[in-house]
Design a protein that fits this description.
The chain is an alpha+beta fold and 201 residues long. The protein has 2 domains: 82 residues, 2-Layer Sandwich (first zn-finger domain of poly(adp-ribose) polymerase-1); 80 residues, first zn-finger domain of poly(adp-ribose) polymerase-1 (2-Layer Sandwich). The protein contains 4 helices and 7 strands; from the N terminus they run E-E-E-H-E-H-E-E-E-H-H. Strand 2 and strand 3 form a beta hairpin. It is elongated and about 55 Å long. Pfam families: zf-PARP. It is found in: Nucleus.
């Protein structure tokens, strides 16, 4: 019988149909989830038992090594860091607010080569695109997003202060500003996604 390639699988939920095996609540679409690979009962293979990442990372002795997590490199940088910190610290971190310095930018795409980190769709030439990366990361850590995808991920960012904002045409600035106005003040399970950010612009 084959062993699973890795004991854990990390990804953002593709739908809202799965339930957390720890807290028994549903895992909303796009929420980070961790699946513990277990022997399937109905076929010869393995399947993930999904949990909210936050539920797993509250418990000790769950993930023993970074190499035990499939899909880690596909996660947003701040989510990768949560898992790395858990492993390196030997368990859940103390209940404190962790500041994740981030750097952002905005521009009009000059090509159609880049794909949006959130929706995986191409960002077409001439579209406004927005970037994010952890402070200190080089170009390799740069992640591009469609403007609407970026605002879904980072709703608290003040777009008019981003590098590149003043270089946009008035119509592009208006389109992005309209996205900001449409962001709801609160979202379901918003507490699962709080990121404390400092701006380095």
């Amino acid at each position: 019988m084959a062993s699973p390639p890795k004991p854990w699988k990390a990804e953002y939920a593709k739908s809202g149909r799965s339930s957390c095996k720890t807290c028994k609540n549903s895992i909303d679409k796009e929420v980070l989830r961790l699946g513990k690979m277990v022997q399937a009962t109905q076929f010869d293979g393995f399947m993930p038992m999904w949990n909210h990442a936050s539920c797993v990372l509250k418990k000790a002795k769950q993930i023993k090594s970074i190499d035990d997590v499939e899909g880690l490199e596909s996660l947003r940088w701040e989510d990768q860091q949560k898992i790395r910190s858990y492993v390196e610290g030997g368990g859940p971190a103390p209940s404190t607010n962790v500041v994740v310095p981030m750097e952002y930018g905005i521009e009009v795409s000059q090509t159609s080569r880049a794909a949006c980190r959130r929706c995986s769709q191409k960002i077409m030439k001439g579209e406004v695109r927005m970037s994010s990366k952890s402070a200190g990361q080089g170009a390799k850590g740069l992640a591009w997003h469609h403007a609407n995808c970026f605002m879904d991920l980072y709703p608290s960012v003040q777009v008019e202060k981003l590098p590149g904002w003043k270089g946009l045409k008035g119509s592009d600035q208006a389109s992005v500003s309209a996205l900001v106005k449409n962001i709801p003040h609160s979202t379901k399970n918003g507490s699962d996604h709080l990121i404390f950010i400092t701006y380095e612009l």
